[in-house]
Amino acid sequence: MSALEEILDESLKTIIHIPSVNSAESSGDKFEEVNHVIDCIGELEYQDTETGVLFVKSKRSGRILKIADLVNDNQKERDKIVAYLRGVKTPDDIDMIIALGMAKEGFDWPFCQHALTIGYRGSLTEIIQIIGRATRDSNNKSHAQFTNLIAQPDAVDDDVRLAVNNMLKAITASLLMEQVLAPNFKFKPMDDFDNEGEDDDSDGNTIKIRGFKKPTSQRAKDIIESDLNDLKARILQDDTMLKALPGNLEPEIINTVLIPKIIREIYPDLAEDDVEAIRQYVVVDSVIKNSEVEEHGTKKFIRMAGSFVNIDDIHIDLIDTVNPFQKAFEILSKNVTTSILKSIQDTINITKIEMTEEEAIASWEAIKRWKTNTGKAPDINSYDSKEQRLAQALLILQEAKRRKNQNG
């Protein structure tokens, strides 16, 4: 819990989500985990018998913090605190809430400034709901933040695949968070005007794009209007997409092949023109939200993928050359060690190797000779095709060993 102590800011109104009980991060005892969280914050002074609010003295400031425990299974106690939270009127009424599944509780807390989640959440839709709790407009805050604490995989441990997969998924969750919190833009074809023929960029948030396709059916329009974040969440959860995000496929393949394939699977009733319109909107919205829009004189420019482009010259073909989900992995590369990155890359590589386990076993003596002669293991990124093949065989053998250890 030391990481929690370091990152917890008692000046922020915070929702703390303890690990999902079935997750690898969970101890299996959710009540003890609540106690650990409270110990990180300070010392429990007393609990109000009428409201259920916990009064905890902060170890940092000495302040008395009001905390709500929504993990408690006692229905009578739970009803008390939920009733209290439904009646919250000011920021001072509650300081922190400890919960497992906030999205299911029947109250709103617009004063929340920080959603702090311990452990990876399997549903990115749940991540959206968690973020939504901290992004309600309120006069007590000028910004909101979301923090996801996950276990960093031990790269020297042979059994890292599950931890690496969870880390990758948590990265997609953080990327989705940026997408949800970023300013909203509207996108239209370059030659499109509103019904009255007026300039439809009067609010400065409409961007016109050459070659951009509009949806034709009301169903497609509704998806773009209401379901875009949920659609992005489902795209980011797709196994093929997850493996492609760190740059293992060209952006054009991600944008024009993988994304429309996922859209067709989610909405099989859509016509191809509407699949393409939704696909373009998802890609454009993701790319623009990860880019910087700047004004120079009377002109606007957008900085994306290292290019500085006049906003009047943007074409859908240009946007399709940008990986819309690359930013999170660029951030990752600056914040984790080389060995962790190698573990992540190995996990991705293992899914792309076409080799039987028998062939890998037959290569073992050649792998050992390579190590003896060169002093290092074969490198999968080598220009030498023989070294590449030996490195692939080594990954297959390591994966087989992990599976054997997991199965006892």
Provide the domain count: 3
- The proportion of residues forming helix, as a percent range, comes to 40-55%
The ordered string of helix (H) and strand (E) elements is HEHEEEHEEHEHEEHHHHHEEEHHHHHH
- The N- to C-terminal Cα distance equals 30 Å
Count of DSSP E strands? 12
Q: Enter the CATH topology name of the largest domain.
A: Rossmann fold
Major β-sheet strand ordering: 2-3-4-5-1-6-7
Determine the number of helices (DSSP H or I, runs of at least 4 residues): 16
The top-level CATH class of the largest domain is: Alpha Beta
Q: Outline, from the CA principal axes?
A: globular
- Runs in which pLDDT lies below 50 for 5 or more consecutive residues are 195-199
How many strands, which pairing sense, and closed or not: the largest β-sheet? 7 strands, mixed
Task: Classify the beta-strand content into a percent band.
Answer: 5-15%
The CATH architecture of the largest domain comes to 3-Layer(aba) Sandwich
- What Rg do the Cα atoms give? 25 Å
Q: What is the overall pLDDT average?
A: 78
The chain-level structural class is alpha/beta
